[in-house]
Amino acid sequence: MMRFTSPSRRPAALRPLLVAVAAALTPGATLAAQGGPVSAQDAWVREAPAGRKVTAIFLTLHNTGPTARALVHGTTEVADTLELHEMKRDGEMMRMSPVASITIPARGQVELRPGGLHLMLFGLRKPLAAGDTVRVLLSLDDGSQVAVVAPVRAAGVVP
Predict the structure, then answer these.
(1) Where in the sequence is the domain holding 99, given as residue range(s)?
(2) What average pLDDT score do residues 29-42 get?
């Protein structure tokens, strides 16, 4: 059995695995796309009101690469469906509607936030309470994926 006394003495091949394990165990943390330039930060889920089987996920997607990428799909075990959505003003009303993809500009970012682009969870399989965590797997247009661990926040609490 090998022992490592400091991070600098760990074999380089183990570093990505250790980062992935640490991120998976840390609420609000995310894993970058496998070998890709897209990552997510500051993810959180709005607590659903009692009896409601729908809620939203918010986060910021970062793209350090030279090519724009698009978020095209997502899955989670806590809901039947995950959809990409946006809020838009239609006259005096704000309307929510699904979108086919969300573009993450090259060397840029896109913020998924209340009142704008966001991810919707439909058919929650269990109530989500503040303090719970939700794991989501986001799929990009190039086939790469980004794993996200998002804490559930009480309704009305916006960071």
Answers:
(1) 12-153
(2) 70
